[in-house]
From TrEMBL:
Entry protein name: Phosphoribosylglycinamide formyltransferase
Site positions per UniProt: Raises pKa of active site His: 147
Pathway: Purine metabolism; IMP biosynthesis via de novo pathway; N(2)-formyl-N(1)-(5-phospho-D-ribosyl)glycinamide from N(1)-(5-phospho-D-ribosyl)glycinamide (10-formyl THF route): step 1/1
Alphabetical UniProt keywords: Purine biosynthesis, Transferase
Domain Formyl transferase N-terminal: 5-184
Catalytic activity: N(1)-(5-phospho-beta-D-ribosyl)glycinamide + (6R)-10-formyltetrahydrofolate = N(2)-formyl-N(1)-(5-phospho-beta-D-ribosyl)glycinamide + (6S)-5,6,7,8-tetrahydrofolate + H(+)
EC number of the protein: 2.1.2.2
SUPFAM superfamilies reported in the protein's UniProt record: Formyltransferase
Function, in words: Catalyzes the transfer of a formyl group from 10-formyltetrahydrofolate to 5-phospho-ribosyl-glycinamide (GAR), producing 5-phospho-ribosyl-N-formylglycinamide (FGAR) and tetrahydrofolate.
Recorded family membership: Belongs to the GART family.
Amino acid sequence: MTRRRIAILISGRGSNMVSLMEAARAHDYPAEIALVLSNRPDAEGLDRARDAGIEALAIDHKAYSTRESFEQALDEALHARDIEFICLAGFMRVLTNWFVERWAGRMVNIHPSLLPLFRGTQTHRRALEEGVLVHGCTVHFVVPELDAGPIVAQAVVPVVPDDTETSLAERVLEQEHLLYPQALRMICSGRARLDGGRVIFTDSWDASAALLSPV
């Protein structure tokens, strides 16, 4: 089995990064985490990656005068290490169209809402304000428009009457840690592929499944 070389881009502690690294330890996982890269030299996730024996690299965006020059440095570092695919995991930089198009079809992100609902930030607060009864997270391919790329996978959690932003965020994050490795496995094994702006799946679906909230 050929394992695809993955880079994880982070800006902080990298909790989703850890879930991807743990999944990639399995001998049958179709991807290897070859690099963890951060725009912040003090990102906690860099040390967590080094402790796991994975190369960790910081490219400080503050050292570059333009967004474009920073992204060119990112791109050069990724290509120098033969990276095939990028996972954004709490990477707190809006990427330019140049970088996104350069990695088109080879970069995914995990977003804390059921896209296309609640694109952008403050997703849990907005979900509570809107009174939705289900919320969740989405893995999607990255396109120039923010949080608008083709969807690979979603996980759903109930929203309960006494939820706060914190409690809802914790419930969603738990599902993120499960969903992201599953989505990456699907992509790297060929079970989910990008075709004409949509994700095509090779597996059959159970169309009878449903989540009711409240039960």
